[in-house]
Amino acid sequence: MSVKLEIAQEILLNLVTVMPKERVALQECWHRILGETVSSDIDFPPFDRSPLDGYAMIAEEVTTATPENPVMLKQIDYIPAGGNPSKTISAGTTSRIMTGAPIPPGATGVIRLEDTIVNGDSVSILDGSGAGKNICLQGDEIFQGEEVVAQGTIINAGVMGMLAVLGKSQPYVFRKPRVALIATGSEIIPIDFPLAPGKIRNSNSYMLSAQVAEAGGQAVFLGNASDNIDEIAHLLESASDCDVFVTTGGASVGDYDLIGEVYKKLGVTLLFDRVSMKPGMPVLAGVRDGKLFLGLSGNPAAAAISFEQLGRPMLMKMSGRKVWWRPRIKGILASPFKKKTGDKRFVWARCWQADTDILVEPSRAQGNGMLKSAMAANALIVIPENSPPLMVGTEVEIILLADA
Ligand SMILES: Nc1nc2c(c(=O)[nH]1)N[C@H]1C(S)=C(S)[C@@H](COP(=O)(O)OP(=O)(O)OC[C@H]3O[C@@H](n4cnc5c(N)ncnc54)[C@H](O)[C@@H]3O)O[C@H]1N2
Ligand code: MOO
Q: Which atom of ligand 1 is nearest to the CA of 227?
C-alpha cells in the first residue's frame, strides 16, 4: 500500500516511544540527550568573589582616588583563590586578593593591581572609580533551586561545562536506539572482499551508519545477505537486542525484491510498502512487538533520502530529542532544475548566502545510485508535487543539512 510522505512519517512517529534512561559518566556525554531536568544545589558563584587580581576595600573610601591624589590604605591580609578570608576590612584597610578568591567581610569593592602602587604594606590607589562593580556576587549566574538544564537538552560543550558546575558526574541520558543495518542483494560484498564480475561493495551500511549516528542512534552492523528470504530473516533475527531494523535492497518489484516476503515470514505487520516521493519511493515499514522495521531501497541516494525523511525523525524522537525536524528556509535557484516533478521530490543541493539572499544550486549528478550528489550537498531542495521545470530565480524551500 502506497502512502503520502507526511502520512508515513506520522505512522512511524506514532509507533515509537522515547528510549529508557541510563546513567553515563559526564565525560562520555557529548551529544547525548539529557534524560533529567537538573536543578542547582548551590548558588553560583557560591560566594562573592573577585574577578580581578587586586585589592579589596570599602569602595566608597576610594571613589575620589586619582594618580595626583591617591588614597592610601594599609594591607592587612592576603587572599589567594581557594582561600578563606578571616580578617574584616575596616576604614583605611585593604587585603590583596587574587582572581576567584572570596571577597573578605566588610569589603565592598576591588581595584586591579595596575591601578595601585605598593610599598611594603602601604597601598596607594590611583584610580578608584568603579571599585564597587568589581565584585561577582554570589548567585549572579545561578540561584540555588533554579532549573538550569531541561530534560531533552542536547549535551553540547556548554551543557557539559554546566553539568560539571552542578556536580552531575553521571547524569541520566536517554539510551541510544540500537539500529541493526543489513545490506541485502546477491551482488553486494563486504568492502574488504575482492571484487568479482557483477559484484559491488556495500556502501549503504556505511552511509546509513553515519546517518543513524547523526540522528542519535547507535548503528549495529549485521553484514550482508544474498537475495534469499531465509538468509535475510535469519540475520534480522540475530539481533534481538536492537530497537530498529533497517535493510537496504529488495524493496521494489523485481524477481528478487524479497523484503515483503521476509516480513511475512517473521510475522512483521506491514505498515506501508511505497511512499509517494522521489527518490526513495520503494520503501517498506513494518512493526513487530513494538519494534520498527524499515526496508529501504538499495539505490544509495534513494536509501539516504528515505532514511532522512522516515528514519531520522523516528530516531530523533526515540533518542529523546524535542525537535525532530531540520530547519527549513527559502532559497533562490541559482541554476535550473529541468525535470518535471510528479511526486514530491528531494534534490541534493548546495546553498550559500549571497548578499541578502540564500542561493541554492542542485548537485549535478542526481541519479538515484549516485552518492556524489549526496556527498557534496549541504541542503535538500523540496520540490512540491506536480511542479513544472524550475527556472533560475525560482524561490524554493530548502532543508538545511547538518555538517557540510
Ligand atoms: N520494474 C520496476 N523496476 C524498478 C522500479 C519500479 O518501480 N519498477 N523502481 C526503481 C527504483 S525508483 C528504485 S529506487 C529501485 C529500488 O530497488 P530495490 O530497493 O529493490 O533495490 P535493489 O534492486 O536491491 O538495488 C538497487 C541498486 O542499488 C544497488 N545496491 C543495493 N544494495 C547496495 C548496497 N548495500 N550498497 C551499494 N549499492 C547497493 C544495487 O546493486 C542496485 O544497483 O528499483 C528500480 N527498479
Ligand atoms: O523511487 Mo527510486 O526510489 O527513484 O530512487
A: 24
Which ligand lies nearest the alpha carbon of 249? 1
Count of CB atoms within 10 A of residue 332's CB?
16
344 lines ligand 2 (CB under 6 A): no
249 alpha carbon – ligand 1 mean position (Å)? 6
Instruction: Tell the residue nearest (CA) to atom 2 of ligand 1.
Output: 253
pLDDT at 2: 83
| Residue 275 predicted with pLDDT over 70 | yes
The predicted pLDDT at position 404 comes to 53
How much is the average pLDDT of 191-217? 96
368 lines ligand 2 (CB under 6 A): yes
Give the residue extent of every domain in the chain: 2-20+175-318, 21-44+140-174, 54-133, 328-400
Topology of 328-400 in CATH? Answer: Beta-clip (2.40.340)
pTM of the model: 0.89
- Kindly state the cell numbers that stand for 137: 556576587
The CATH number of domain 2-20+175-318 is 3.40.1280.10: no
Residue 117 near residue 67 (C-beta atoms within 8 A):
no
pLDDT value at residue 336: 95
Pocket mutation for ligand 2, best pick of 368, 370, 383 (most atoms within 8 Å of C-beta): 368
Mean of the pLDDT values across residues 25-39?
98
